[in-house]
Amino acid sequence: MFAKQYINGIIDEVMEYYDCIIAGSGPAGLGAAFQLLSCKPDARILILEKAEISSGGLRNDCKMNFTFPVGFPGEYWERGKAEEYLAQVEEFLKPEILEQKQFDVYEKRAARIGVELLRIRQSHLGTDGGIQLIKALVSQLTAKQVEISFGESLITAEEKDHMAVTGKREAHYGALIVAPGRHGFDFLRRFMTELGIPYADNSIDVGIRLETKIEHYPIVKDYYDPKFIFPERTRTFCTNSGSAHVVQERYTTPSGQHYYSVNGHSYSENRPPNGLVNFAVLRSVAFTEPIASGQDYAEYLATLAMLTGGGHPVMQRVGDFRLGKRTTADGLNTDLNDFRPTLSSATPGDISLALPSKFLDSIWKALKLLDTIIPGILHPSTIMYYPEIKLYANKPIFRDYYFMAARDIYLIGDGAGTSRGITGAWASGLRAADGIAARNGWTAA
Question: How far, in Å, CA of 271 to CA of 115, rounded?
Fold first, then answer.
């Protein structure tokens, strides 16, 4: 598609033009694209994806939560509107909601000791199911003439001229949606700085991921991803069971240092179970002066963990942690320690050498409470992996309700702090698309 301009009375085809350019092919970007097409079926849309495949939140494990407020940061969402958008997400994706059993039993146990268990409607496709969903969604968009360019990154934008600059070209847009996800946190920070978009970056989630036998955390047979809220802003997050594995994800700091954050995923029921379960316990902290950037602090912690682990995440058995001693490779698979860590590249060691006590104390208190609710989670063989750090604390100052941060530039998804998870990210894409449609007078079919 080419924009045309008149120079001395002569029509000059200068560069490509799109009604909307979307940077990021995760759930936020995909949701925005489908919503724009529902308002303007012939909309010219370009989706940019820096990876060679769609690498957003639908790819790893693909668990989705359909109950407010999970995934919806309170500073940007109020219940009524969030639930309206959630209903749209559910209608489009048509998930199979998982059955929950014995919820009242676990809820009462938790309430007795000051812990909250959230009742969440959930679905789970697994990593393999998520990949199939992505392929289907991309195919649908391609059939609707949406251009999807893999291996192409947004570099910057010129607000006045409505021009996007990528690593391969320049293109004009009517609207630009930037949805880089958690991995694009640092890119988005640079992007906002270049365009003069004010933002705050002062809160982080830091924690560990536990891995144990499913018999030590049997609640997952009744509630796939139980959401426990503990005192001191500590919570469980992203539970995986069945064919479950702990993985490491690579990040790069602004100075070029590489580090790994652990994560978890599992496959669908089509894969044989391995008898293990993993989940994160995260502690949230909001900084005040003099710390200007929560991300810089989080990345400092991550690089310290890499130093401690010789370039890899650190793992420690609960039994060793209780004794105040490091875990060794020789002691990983003896006697009570009778399963092999699925993240074999992690370094046996002592997480307390790298995890500040502010976080570790809160996490250990939470785990002791959890072990009261579900006895067994603190079995000596349980593995604690560190670090697990979530970078979704960018908080832009938006110009309107629809996440417009500069003229016709919209920032959405986990990287922009407007969501925390697949369904919230998809909903933020819908909301931005609605804003673009209203601004251009497009009407939904």
Answer: 34
Compute the distance between CA of residue 386 and CA of residue 316 in angstroms, rounded to an integer.
9
Measure the CA–CA gap between 401 and 379, rounded to whole angstroms. Answer: 48
Between CA 279 and CA 230 the distance in angstroms is 15
| Cis ω before 387 (30° cut-off from 0) | yes
For residue 253, pLDDT over 70 is answered with yes
What is residue 292's predicted lDDT score, i.e. its pLDDT? 66
Alpha carbons 431 and 435: distance in angstroms, whole number: 6
What Rg value do the Cα atoms of the chain yield, rounded? 23
Contacts of 68 (CB under 8 A, 6+ apart): 77, 79, 82, 83, 86
CB 271 within 8 A of CB 131: no
Confidence label for 8 from pLDDT (cuts 50, 70 and 90)? very low
- Which pLDDT score, from 0 to 100, does residue 82 have? 97
Q: What is the DSSP letter of 183?
A: G
d(Cα 440, Cα 229) in Å, to the nearest integer?
42
Q: 182 to each of 14, 63, 294, how far by Cα in Å? A: 34, 16, 14
Contact 302, 292 (CB under 8 A): no
CATH code assigned to 2-97+123-200+394-440 = 3.50.50.60
The single residue listed with the structure tokens 């289907």 is 136
The average pLDDT across 8-25 equals 76
Tell whether the model's pLDDT for residue 124 goes beyond 60. Answer: yes
Cα separation, 165 vs 15, whole angstroms: 11
Question: For residue 411, what are the β-bridge partners?
Answer: 178
Please tell me the distance from the alpha carbon of residue 334 to that of residue 158, in angstroms, as a whole number.
Answer: 60
Cα→Cα distances 147→43, 108, 307, Å: 11, 51, 43
Residue with token string 């697994």: 126
In the chain, ranges of CATH 3.50.50.60 domains: 2-97+123-200+394-440
Q: Which of 348, 359, 365, 345 is nearest to 301 (CA)?
A: 359
pTM above 0.70, yes or no: yes
The structure tokens listed for 413 are 């998804």
Give the pLDDT of residue 269: 82
Quote the CA–CA distance of 380 and 213 in Å, as a whole number: 11
Q: How far is CA 190 from CA 56, 66, 197, 240, 394, in A?
A: 20, 32, 10, 33, 11
3-state class percentages of the chain: helix first, strand second, coil last, to nearest 5? 30, 30, 40
Residue that the structure tokens 């560990």 belong to = 208
Q: How far is CA 114 from CA 70, 109, 117, 232, in A?
A: 20, 9, 10, 11
